Batch of 2 targets.
Target 1
Amino acid sequence: MLKKVVGYLMTHSIYLLIFGFFALFPLFVKDAYYLRILIFIGIYIILALSLNLINGYTGLFSIGHAAFYGIGAYSSALLTLRLGTPFILALPLSGMIAAFFGYLIGKPTLRLSGIFLTLATLGFNIIFVLLMINLDGLTRGPLGIAGIPTPKILSYSFSRQVDYYYLVFFLVLFTLGSIYRIIHSRFGRALLSIREEETASEAAGVDTVHYKIAIFTLSTFFAGIAGSFFAHYLRFIAPDSFTFWESFTLLAMLALGGQGNLVGPVVGASLLIAVPELFRFLTDYRMILYGLILIVMMLFRREGLFRKRTYALRVTPPWERKGTGPVYATGDKFLKNLPLKDSADGTPKD
């Protein structure tokens, strides 16, 4: 029993160290400025991971993800301000509302492919921003919605930066865990087959349109959750926070970190939020910087820093490491599963 526990801890030691580092970070670094940066990194990690479900794992190309981010933010703000909905209910409801609009958009557009899907999602992002500007009675137009209540779970009210830090930390873990389970399921394998060869997937009996609509809807759910947290964290939202440029920023994060795995979006989001803080004097040129990143990555490392592969940060305990056995050719790997029986003279027989 003890050996199994030690083996489990050793196998997942890297994950436990990363988890422990970020879980204990506020205990050693109490500066609100650094916590604020980490909170925004957490928001964009959720957004980048959700977009990665569409662009990375399914092979589609959506360029209007910020619209669903904005739907989540506006839904949560209006639910709490107009209807008095508690935050603990407004958070999942905002994700569901964003997912509902994702389904409405995905149902007709995901039958398209290539540039047509890209243009459809871009058009939806532009329409969403224009509606938020012109619906003055509902959204206060370009003035935005202010005075959004702070999150409150049961009797505990979130008021400090460290409170928001642990809340977004939980949401990031929830998003990572959910996506990991999705990708390592039968559903996830169907998505990967669509990405690699959609025609062959259809020939094998995979309902590609159904799977694409489902993953698009699920992706927008996570974007809606990120938008809800964003609204209650800043306590103010306006249409210019959800424009096409925000979608472009998310694409730059995937281009830098890489798509088709869980590590790339996390690294890309972290770098593109943290690094500009070191060069705040270049804030006005942020989009130029993101454009240059896209160009450089497309020229020299098209798949990003982390390519389309699974990065398992696990350590194998010494007692579980297998010895070096015979080397089999690719076509003869089935031989290693066949037991050999010795004959009377000591020679192996079938």
Target 2
Amino acid sequence: MKTFKPRLKARLRKNRQVLNKNIDNFFGWVKGAKLVELKECNTEEDPVRPELDNEFRTGYGRKIYGVEYQGEIYAVMCFAYTNKIPKSVDELEKLSTDAFLQSAMRDQSGGQIAIAYTVWSKKKGGGKLIVKEVFKKIKKSNHLNRLITLSPLTEMATKFHSNNGAKLIQINETTQNFEYKVM
């Protein structure tokens, strides 16, 4: 019986080491990932708003960001810059175009509110990472003072934003808005 116990302990210790190593490998890509602006994305991969084409996503006052690691994109987030909180995609388009044109007249950088209207991840941990990286970018910007979402009315969206520290600010007819504290 005495020889059995040390063997069991050794096996448990070895298994714990293997498990920890595998977890490090699983999330290891996160450490070397960086936020990049994209000219386009594969809209068919977008589980939230696949109907929006790249022309819309890069139109007046709108941008696409991705988390890149070793030349591959692991998560994508699309933004619009506005001065008011939209309640629908149509309103988002109007408000971002309006903010863009206003800023062009005043030689500014765009709207003061960053509206995240879609986000998806191709790898575990990517969604949370892109929210964190975009949040850092917004904190560093001179003209942005709020990060708001235009999210679908789904349990998954509610859970994702709540788990990442956002606060629900309004529920609309077909969408909901969450706010991430910037200040």
